[in-house]
Write a sequence for this structure.
């Protein structure tokens, strides 16, 4: 008997993938191993399908997660997977398992968030499943999307010398979680306390509770006529996602630590929690930004873009995936274990 | 505050559907309210998307449900939703939430069943999500399928005088569950007991543990050049599904009780459990057979089919959905409450 911990989530996915036979349908273009599955749609477009499950006590804590935000987030994290293929979402299904402690009003709040996200990302809610749950709240969202055949972007097609880019800033969602967890512990110790989360921390809290799927970037890449060579969304931290791109593309990478985009609030909170902001960016997760690579000659089209930052470059030495300081020091970037 | 029980599952779905805005995408052909969502695929075909969630303690009990059968069943019940649109499945995603008590070997068993079902139904496993779970096992499957535009079959298009047909036989899965539950109680009372489930009950047990999605019927309807006027799969019992067809089509129905197909084993077990076999067929659920209607002149193509039985006919009086005995007695068929 082997425990799941010894294998880890990535090991488990790898095991499932290896045992999965080759596709039968000619319409199956790409299966397990990318942000979304790819299927034949029309002459000029591919269809995309992705799914994500959120479980109470694992992915969210209802003591500080408002149901409306949770509904929004459940859609946003799925939309993010479609964006990671350079695609745009079109339809979603939402399945919900509810224990008897939930009221109709609570379910209304959850769906108000789901609808708000559908509106924000231009997606139709087309179905789902509702069921009772013996324990907590379970949410499973599946999303359909589409992408022009000549713009689809996989994980395994980065090349040496490609510029590595990230959107937005990193580490904020992780520090938002730390703030919320601390607040919860203080509340549990003293239920009469007043919430002390200041306005200055609002950005971090929002990044954790109501992340955004970056479909805006997908539109902008199209407008700028840039097709990334590889792309993935940053759900488990920059380190983990970079390792996916490198392993699947057979490349190495150099990341310049001073280039990693970190918000001022993230810096301040990291200091307070005695965490390196770079560690938060590398291993924190849940930022739902995009990590992508472009050919060096393409990068000039992006270099003045305020929400896209070049953080390093791909190399031809697959084993060397390193973080480099300005002083020239290099440290190997390591994989994480079981990730929620 | 309103409890979920006062609303019921169907009331909840209705509430969600009513609050869902009209579709934005022209590619969204049909949303919430049928067995699967329908989207534009090619000039001659529609795409189908459906999803079902199975939760431990609600939908299955691992004390008697082998993981391999559970994997098969999770796929089969989704395939059944695609069949209910007169379509065939093409790709699935499987998301699994696992608590730490599951071993790698247990997950292997689950996926062996999933792969067996993929082979049986000619479906590609293209993705999913794996996560840890705080409580029990959670399985969420989404399935893509397709159907010729001129063969798609909705729930709301039955007409008065259409012949109501069911495939296979009904009530067996429910009695299989009763047998397994009784066995479990006996085992809990006396853990040294030997299992007493006889060979003669094998069919009932199999119907509960390893149901089949009826894609065979979809192929045969095509071969016989029959397009049903309306169709739904029987997951919650004949009564509940018939009410859906009638309510959505604006028809009434007469079901002849002596025509309802019930297997001999179901009769025997029903007698033992002091349940009417007709009640088991009407309200038992989990048979995953198909309930469909055809125009009277089309029915002759089906009347010699060994696995299709005419059980009644649609009428033009929406409020009267009745079960009729040979003696001429009629009783109104009622809706169920919250269904698992």
């Amino acid at each position: 008997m082997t425990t799941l911990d010894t294998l880890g989530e990535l090991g488990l996915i790898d095991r499932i993938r290896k045992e999965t036979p080759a596709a039968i349908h000619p319409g199956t273009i790409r299966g397990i191993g990318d942000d979304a599955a790819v299927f034949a749609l029309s002459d000029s477009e591919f269809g995309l399908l992705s799914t994500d499950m959120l479980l109470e006590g694992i992915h969210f804590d209802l003591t500080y997660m408002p149901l409306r935000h949770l509904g929004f987030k459940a859609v946003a994290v799925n939309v993010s997977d479609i964006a990671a293929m350079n695609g745009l979402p079109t339809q979603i299904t939402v399945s919900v398992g509810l224990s008897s402690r939930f009221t109709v009003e609570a379910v209304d709040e959850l769906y108000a968030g789901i609808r708000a996200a559908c509106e924000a990302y231009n997606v139709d809610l087309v179905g789902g499943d509702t069921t009772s749950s013996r324990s907590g709240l379970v949410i499973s969202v599946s999303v359909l999307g589409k992408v022009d055949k000549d713009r689809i972007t996989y994980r395994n097609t980065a090349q040496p010398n490609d510029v590595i880019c990230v959107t937005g800033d990193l580490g904020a969602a992780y520090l938002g979680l730390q703030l919320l967890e601390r607040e919860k512990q203080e509340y549990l110790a003293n239920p009469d306390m007043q919430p002390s989360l200041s306005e200055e921390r609002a950005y971090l809290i929002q990044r954790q509770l109501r992340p955004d799927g970056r479909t805006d970037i997908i539109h902008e890449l199209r407008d700028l006529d840039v097709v990334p060579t590889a792309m993935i969304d940053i759900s488990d931290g920059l380190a983990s996602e970079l390792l996916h791109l490198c392993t699947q593309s057979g490349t190495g990478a150099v990341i310049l630590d001073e280039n990693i985009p970190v918000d001022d609030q993230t810096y301040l909170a990291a200091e307070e929690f005695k965490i390196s902001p770079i560690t938060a960016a590398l291993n924190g997760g849940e930022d739902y930004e995009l990590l992508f690579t472009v050919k060096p000659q393409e990068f000039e089209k992006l270099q003045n873009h305020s929400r896209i930052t070049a953080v390093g470059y791909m190399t031809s030495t697959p084993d060397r995936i390193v973080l480099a300081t300005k002083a020239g020091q290099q440290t190997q970037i390591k994989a994480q274990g079981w990730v929620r």
